[in-house]
Specification:
- This protein is of the alpha+beta class and 236 residues long.
- It has a single domain (4-235), classed as Aminopeptidase (3-Layer(aba) Sandwich).
- The chain has 7 helices and 10 strands.
- The strands form 2 sheets. Strands 1, 4, 5, 6, 7, 8, 9 and 10 form an 8-stranded mixed sheet that branches. Strands 2-3 form a two-stranded antiparallel ribbon.
Length: 236
């Protein structure tokens, strides 16, 4: 029996690897849209509720990777056949609040997700500024944006390794912490368990969360599947 260390290799992607970037985008899009992995259905709750399609979401993911890959915070797990079976993609940009619809056509409903993320990001930035006396700047925090694992075995070890690689790199480059918008309880659990990234409490002691039950577009998500998008933070 091979150990997961022997089954998978890990690599931080660069702009000179278009084939791997494409494979990484495919892996992420599949896990967000919905994929069966070892008899378990893996899907991002908002994407599922809004019935976003694979082609649109793949293009969104690919565009994100292309625009952030030079920052050096996209890591993949590859199996012995060089298939990408896990991806953790992030960036060091300060959260950006656009405040208007940016997606159109068949991908229009992605604006709903954008607004959820902007809601929690805006509240986090305001609280962080009150707490520290200054605004978050580019290059200050590692923002872990997308996680997708389609490996049949060793999923938790892959998640742990992917996170360790990026977090250790962020620490070595002098970043101040790592920020996550966790859209479902599984994401919260894995980031808490493997990386000690905890739900963020504001100065009043409340979690920063966008509750799906209070969103007319997302209130069809069963609460036992996911109750909202939370801000998670770990400071170094």
């Amino acid at each position: 029996m091979q150990t997961t260390q022997e089954l998978y290799t890990y690599e931080i992607l660069t702009a000179e690897q278009p084939d791997l970037i494409q494979k990484a985008a495919e892996c992420l899009a599949r896990t967000f849209i919905g994929v069966d992995v070892s008899g378990k259905w893996v899907q991002e709750p908002m994407v599922g509720e809004l019935h976003l399609n694979y082609e649109d979401f793949y293009q969104f993911t690919k565009d994100y990777l292309d625009s952030t890959i030079d920052q050096g915070y996209c890591v993949v797990a590859k199996d012995i056949d060089n298939n990408v079976v896990g991806v953790l993609a992030g960036d060091t940009n300060a959260p950006e609040i656009i405040g208007e619809d940016v997606f159109e056509g068949s991908f229009y409903e992605m604006n709903v997700i954008l607004r959820v993320l902007e809601d929690v990001d805006k509240r986090f930035m305001e609280d962080y500024q009150k707490r520290t006396g200054k605004e978050i700047e580019d290059g200050e925090l590692l923002h872990l944006f997308m996680l997708g694992v389609i490996a049949e075995q060793g999923r938790h070890e892959i998640i742990q390794q992917l996170g360790n690689i990026l977090i250790n790199k962020a620490i070595s480059q002098g970043l101040k912490g790592v920020l996550v918008e966790a859209t479902n309880p599984k994401s919260v659990r894995v980031f808490e368990k493997y990386h000690n990234i905890q739900k963020y409490k504001d100065l009043e002691g409340n979690y920063i969360v966008h509750k799906y039950q209070e969103n007319s577009k997302l209130n069809g998500i069963p609460e036992n599947i996911a109750d909202g998008t939370y801000i998670l933070l770990k400071e170094f």
